[in-house]
Structures are given as structure tokens and as C-alpha cells.
Amino acid sequence: MISPGLAIPLTLALPVVGCLLIWLLDKQPNLREAATLITGGVLLLLAISVFMAVGEGQRPGYELFEVIDGLPIAFQAEPLGAMFAVIASGLWLVNSVYSIGYMRGGNEKHQTRFYMSFAVAISAAMGVAFAANLFTLFIFYEVLTLSTFPLVTHKGDDNARRGGRIYLGVLMATSIGLLLPAIVWTYAITGTTEFAVGGIFAEHVDAVAPIAGVLLGLYVFGIGKAALMPAHPWLPNAMVAPTPVSAFLHAVAVVKAGVFSVLKIVVYIFGIDFLADTGASIPFMWVAAISILLASAIAMHKDNLKARLAYSTVSQLSYVTLGAMLATSMGVMGGATQIAAHALGKMTLFMCAGAIYVAHHKTLISEMRGLGRVMPFTFGAFFLGAMSIIGLPPLAGSWPKFFLMLGAADAGQMAIIAVLIISSILNVIYLLSIPVQAFYMNPAEGDAKPQGAGGAGIQWGALKEAPILCIAPPLFTATGALVLFFFADPLYKFLLPLIGGQ
User: Which segments cross the bilayer (predicted)?
Assistant: First the structure.
């Protein structure tokens, strides 16, 4: 039996080994993809073993080596990181199954490079999840950026190259120009970058309080992966990537690594009591609130399905930042549970978008009228995913909004409750309209009937769905969003130590 402490470095090493196997099996696609799935399965088991240990009150850790005095590359599992690791590894496995159906169904090129980049990226995500200090977090944050660049530019055309330049430019500029100075500044003040319960600034109030707002701003905007406006352009531009990459960026690793990092820094570096006392987070609370509403307004006007979902992600991930900036226990809980609920809901929506493209080569929402009648499983899964993103019971996304409203009430920020309600109404308009027109509207005059559309897929009488490997994963994640609603209490109890509970 592998100890939880040893399981942590193995979660980083295993995907790298898987990457080498994928490369060696380049000419044998079945074995190559089997290596991907086996790596994903074992990685999930390792992440679950760490998760269970944390649930029992343990805090397993592992130190690789110390670069200089006080700056080790070290890892430690705590509730937020353990949850993120299980989400990332579990959904990577689901996304790998989906990728096989998508890449084969679309006859995509460079599939070996595609799977190799995925493997390195999930290794970096594990490093972010288990980082014991800011120094380690920064290293794996940058590796995640670099390893996903080939995924964003996978198609190799002019749009892909342009999207890749924006992706890399924004993320590297924010991390090097803002995040790195924030980490150096923190180390200069405290002599450490270690994450600590209650925050490390609690013992340096006099030194940090006068500059808390500036330092917090460097972290919030330096973590560009959180996609908080105006540091968000990389995200919609990254939609030039194949749909499995979009699902990975939005649900599994990149944006989740961003908001996870924001939440972890607020809890373990600043401390919510420190932020509440200084009021340093209030301006950024309103930046997050504006991002929620503005991104939703932009999403409403996007006809391209992936573009609409991209701006939806900018809005929905700002919920996590909002929860952190409320600087209350329930706000933090809302942000933490949003990471899990959004992962299931948004991955469902992106995989459905990919299934529609594979089976019918449609990308515009205006072209999807009546398509639900020939793709009922895909649009049924889309409906459940949309319901969860909106926050309607009995789907998982309803709990984060409930906790966020409690957090806003605790902070005396009643206007934030109004923001959350308005956001939900906008979500209804730009998300539920898609399955409604797919099921209840007839194709526009002159449009080809859905049954006659080309593309890969499975024909069942009048139905034409995408290949089974493109259908099963979104059905699985949609079901997961339903199940998580009824099992929110165990997750809540697991995350209690994050806010000082037992």
C-alpha cells in the first residue's frame, strides 16, 4: 500500500511516465490511447488515496529539495488541494475517453502530440493542487501554461497561432509581471512563502496592512488563469483549440488552477480575518461582481456556441474570486464548492458542443434549431449541465450560489446578492435558450434538415448522435452534477477545515 505522502509525488511523476509511453506508442493508436487511459485511472486512484487521508485529518506532505534557504519545492495536501486533485484527475480520465471519440471522429492530426501535452499538463495541475508554498505553486503554474500552449495551437492555422500568442502572452505577462513580484514581496516581508492555516500575514499586520490592497491586486490580476476582467482575453481566444482542449481548459486544469490559486492564497497567505479587518478585498469583490455581469452580457450576444460558453466561464469562475473577496467563511465555502460544481457542469456543456460538431459540423447556435430531435442524448445532457451552471435544484450548481449569498449576507454586502440573482437570470437566457430551440423549434427555412447533416456518428433510425465515446462522457458528467447535489453535505464537511471548522 502506497502511503499518502508518497502518493503525492507519484501524482506528478505518473503522467510524465504516461507521456513517454504515449510517445513510444505513436504508431500504435490503440495501445497509445490505452496508455492514456491506464495512466488516468491510476492517477485518479492515487489522488483518491490522498483525498481520503486528508478526510481523516492527515496532512501528508513531501519535500523534493530546497532551492535556497526558505524556498523548497515541497508539497502538502489540505482539503482544497485534495479536492482539486480529485476533480482534475477524475475529469482528465473522462476527457481522455471523450478525446478518443472526438479525435478519431474528426480525423484530427498530431494525435500523439495532443495526448502527450495533456499528460504533462495534468502533471502540472497536480503540482499546483499539492503545492505547499507560493514558490512551488508558481513553478507548476508556469509549467501548466507552457504545456497547454501546444494544445491551444493544435490546429496549426492562422487563427490557432493568433489565439496561441494571446494565450501565452497574457498568461506569461501577468504571471511574470504581477504574480512573481507579489511572491517576492511576500517573502521579503515574512521570510517565507509557506501556506499556513489562518494566513502568514497574521503575524505581520503592521508591515502588510498599509500595502494589503496593492499586494492583493498583484495576486488577483497576476493569476491570469482566473480570467478576471480585464485579464480575460486569453480565454475566448483559446477557443480555437479542439473541443476536448476547451473542456480541459475550462473544467479540468487551467481556469480551475487559476481560481484555486486565488482562493488558496486568500485563505493561507492573507487569511480571511485579515482581509475582513483591513477591507483590502472589497474593491476586488466589485471587480469580480462586474466581471460576472459583464461577461454574461457578452455571452448573450455570441452566436458561436464555444464563444458563448467561454464568456460564461469568465462569469462563472468570477464566482470563486467573489467568494474569496467576501472574506467570510461562507464566501470561501461558496467559492470552493463552485470549483467542483462548475467543473461538472461546464465540462458537460463543452463536450456536448464537441459532440454536435463531430456529428453535424455545426458551431453556430442559430444553426441548431430542431437539432435536439436527432440528438436527444446530447441536448439532454446539455440541458442538465446548463441547469447546474444556472444554479437550479436539483443540480450541484445551486449550492455554491446558496453559500455565496450567505457569505454576502454575513459581510453585509446585500448588493452582491442582487448581482448573483441577476447573473442567474442572465444564465437562463443565454444557456437554456439553446436546448429549448434545439428541441422545440423547427430548422429555419433553407437550412438543411438535421438528419441530413454530415459528420461522424451513430445512426439510430431518425436519430444521429456522435460516436458513443463522445456521448457517454457528457452523460456521465451531467449525472455527476445531479448526484453531487444530493451529496453536497460530505463535501461541505470535508472542506470545513478550510474555514476553521472541524
Answer: 6-25, 37-55, 80-102, 114-132, 138-154, 166-187, 207-228, 248-270, 282-301, 313-333, 339-359, 371-392, 412-432, 468-488
Closest residue by Cα to residue 399 from 470, 322, 482: 482
The alpha-helical segments, DSSP class H, found in 329-428 are 329-360, 376-390, 398-410, 414-427
Judge contact between 173 and 223, C-beta under 8 A. no
pTM of the model: 0.93
SS3 label, residue 74: strand
Rounded CA gap, 171 and 174, in Å? 5
How far is C-alpha 142 from the chain's CA centre?
A: 16
Average pLDDT of span 361-388: 94
Report CA 406 to chain centroid distance, whole Å.
23
Q: What is the pLDDT of residues 13-46, one digit of tens each?
A: 999 999 999 999 998 989 999 999 999 999 999 9
Tell me the pLDDT tens digit for each residue of 161-216: 998 999 999 999 999 999 999 999 999 999 999 999 999 998 899 899 999 999 99
The yes-or-no verdict on residue 453 having pLDDT over 50 is: no
Among residues 265, 294, 259, 258, which one has the least CA distance to residue 280? 265
Which residue carries 513510444 as its cell? 24
Mean pLDDT of the chain: 91
- pLDDT over 80 (residue 491): yes
Q: Could you give the angle at the alpha carbon of 103 between the alpha carbons of 97 and 108, nearest 5°? A: 165
**Per-residue DSSP letters for 247-302?**
HIIIIISHHHHHHHHHHHHIIIII-HHHHHHH-TTHHHHHHHHHHHHHHHHHHHT-
Query: In terms of DSSP H, where are the helices of 56-175?
Result: 79-105, 111-130, 134-152, 158-174
With b for 16 or more beta-carbon neighbours within 10 A and e for fewer, the 372-395 pattern comes to: bbbbebbbbbbbbbbbbbbbbeeb
Evaluate whether 9 touches 75 at the Cβ level (below 8 Å).
yes
In the chain, the N- to C-terminal Cα span, in Å, equals: 28
> Does position 254 have pLDDT exceeding 50, yes or no?
yes
Integer angstrom CA distances of residue 53 from 198, 356, 491: 21, 40, 14
Structure confidence at residue 445 (pLDDT): 57
Give the separation between CA 116 and CA 339, rounded to whole angstroms.
25
- Its sign, for the CA torsion 153, 157, 160, 163, is positive
Angle between helices 329-360 and 468-486 (to 10 degrees): 160
Residue 390 to residues 86, 135, 396, 465, Cα–Cα distance (Å) = 24, 36, 10, 26
Task: Report residue 247 as a C-alpha cell.
Answer: 473542456
The pLDDT tens digits for 407-449 are 999 999 999 999 999 999 999 999 999 999 999 988 865 554 5
Whole-number Å distance between alpha carbons of 376 and 156: 33
